[in-house]
């Protein structure tokens, strides 16, 4: 390819000035001297051209193809109904037409919702990435095959950064039907025992305008109500326990609905206990009393009420009651009026000394069975006639005293069930034999009758028993020497770990449930943990968001813990069940953006496409299963690249320069000869005309 270039020998402003002066001089000469000055003007022009240093340039160019991006949406929303089939048929037709256009290369870019890490369909990020190695002048256009639901669409064509037309061919059908739940306000934390309000709105297209909604907490139905489409609804949810409370809100499905995945919204509300109220009743002053008090007072989340019986009824010394500086034990207020306000009641070396009437023990039994917690830290009094086991409490205690008390040194041991129980599992020092902790010096003899014996004393006698009583829990410590560990007697022991776990188990800390199922998602993988006192749990059944069901076996981990890992097939809430336990794992965001809005719409990207000279239209339908795609035509000039039945591509005729040769026109003898010839021609012409006038 030949072209003419200039490389001025003097600065361009000076060259322009000289050319202007030469033109003015030539014009004046023509006016004054007439046609005789033409050769002089020609000489001046040749001089100006010589100073511009013109050259002939020949470029050896290799033509290159323009690139057309074919963006194929393979996200979850574009797989609904028959959109996948539409997309495949449209892609085949587009690629067929592009193969028939010379100088055009089709580049297919596939987009999945996983590329957006759960943040919807990132069409334009994929487009920019797919064309990152192509110069902008070589991009002939982009043809997008999608349902029109892109979650990263730029606001303007300038922000898009595409200097070629964008054409959107939209899948789907007219008059699609769908119903979805939109969360307006959802709390992340809540106080246990209190209600939190979730605000939501039902949005539907093609529905009757009213929808029945169901509210579930951890898989259990807690409310049903009706909502009017488009109106905000407030749903109160009671936070039932500490830790994660998974709340599902589901709207009833419509006939022929696109998907049911967006009929359900999921919220995880972390249950936080405001204050744990603990009642500690010490039957008499003793060294271990301070251990319990210090442990409970050290926890800022515990509101402790502590009473020590200093003057039992049988102790009579003649001092008038009104002269005693002791606080009267408010038995009626504590054990009848406000007993339900406590999360845990502890009797520490308490003997039945007629301070509490039997009716109050009945109240404690009801309190436990209704969901309360009771801990008995027993001393020698538990084996005598005043034992709490001889009160109505005996019907819920896991062991009955046999009348013996062993005052001898021994090392407490974790039993076989205790090695699997979360209260005593992995207790520091228990892994050795004998255990690496100090000795205790007393054990109250008792016969276990219920619950689990998690620690034993000499002769494998029960030391610590844990039991469930209907909705509540009971713990029985058959020794009052845990304080020896706290004082460092013979190197002490893990009293903080043991007593803190014991208290938290009684107050239903989720992590300390002996029969529990937990699930979590890490990336695309689901990790399931089964905590059990058994030895071989049943496999876990996983229900995916699309309704598919599969089972995964557990593998043994630490004692009492079994684990299973599996890859999730899609984003969304997965339900995991085994035996009578249920857990949930949300892969990706709890409410995937990809499936929030699924009704296809060519208008979503229409303004952006038209701003580039392109178009957005729905894929037409032919007879049978085929699709109708507009004609694709090359356009070499103009700003409009779409018509009623066609879409255009910007053709640039680009090429790669393989070599360049330059031939200067006014260099050396050639340039001097041309300039000298012009001057001589002007002089001869002027002399000839003067000779004629003289003749």
UniProtKB/TrEMBL annotation:
Protein name stated in the entry: Glutamine amidotransferase domain-containing protein
Superkingdom assignment: Bacteria
Keyword vocabulary terms for this entry: Membrane, Transmembrane, Transmembrane helix
Transmembrane feature ranges: 12-32, 39-58, 665-685
Keyword Chaperone on entry: no
InterPro entries the UniProt entry points to: Class_I_gatase-like (IPR029062)
SUPFAM superfamilies in the cross-refs: Class I glutamine amidotransferase-like (SSF52317)
